[in-house]
Design brief:
alpha/beta; Rossmann fold
């Protein structure tokens, strides 16, 4: 089964929201065949729940992260995953330099831009196409595609008011929708009935 790991710093704000939204988007697309989605932090307290603001902001976008428990990133966390999505450039650097994720690690925004620079995937691509699409994105990066290096990070809302978490959840939801389409092609849209 294919798998995706989402990484931020403490695994209590951004990555739990992204994990919940991505899991829901993939489940809506693929049902039981959806890639598994998990998250971790480069630093943090094992077992901490997501912040109350993160839980609320995710819930308002339809994702339930009430049961989330933080875990700290370990090298073995990245060994068997097909894709590692970092919330910021600093996390991507840690993933590649310290945790062996190599060509499977991208920031969310970087990966979306890379995927959108490639020929689109045929609609209806399945989860088994994930590794190939990640490899294509890595190849585009190695070939010099830089996207927008001044806009790679999803801001950390820790310590900020609920409105900031809502803005981050909205931003993540938008980028994740583009990510899923970039990885697996545009979702089939039912034709409007004539009447």
């Amino acid at each position: 089964m294919t798998s995706i790991l989402v990484v931020c710093t403490g695994n209590i704000c951004r990555s739990p929201i992204a994990e919940g939204l991505l899991r829901d988007a993939l489940t809506a697309r693929f049902g039981a065949e959806a890639p598994t989605v998990s998250s971790a932090g480069t630093w943090g307290v094992e077992g901490s729940g997501a912040t109350a603001e993160a839980v609320t902001a995710a819930s308002e976008r339809g994702a339930d992260i009430t049961g989330h428990r933080a875990r700290r990133l370990a090298t073995e966390s990245t060994a068997d995953v097909d894709l590692v999505i970092a919330m910021a450039g600093e996390h991507r650097v840690a993933l590649t330099d310290e945790h062996g994720a190599g060509d499977r690690a991208f920031t969310l925004k970087e990966l979306v831009r890379l995927l959108e620079s490639l020929p689109p995937v045929s609609p209806g691509a399945g989860p088994d196409s994930l590794a190939d699409r990640v490899s294509q994105a890595a190849g585009a990066r190695r070939a010099g595609f830089t996207g927008n290096p001044l806009d790679e990070d999803v801001a950390d809302p820790l310590g900020l008011p609920l409105q900031s978490y809502r803005a981050i959840a909205w931003e993540l939801d938008e980028w994740i929708a583009r990510l899923v389409d970039g990885l697996f092609g545009a979702a089939d849209v039912p034709a409007a009935s004539e009447g």
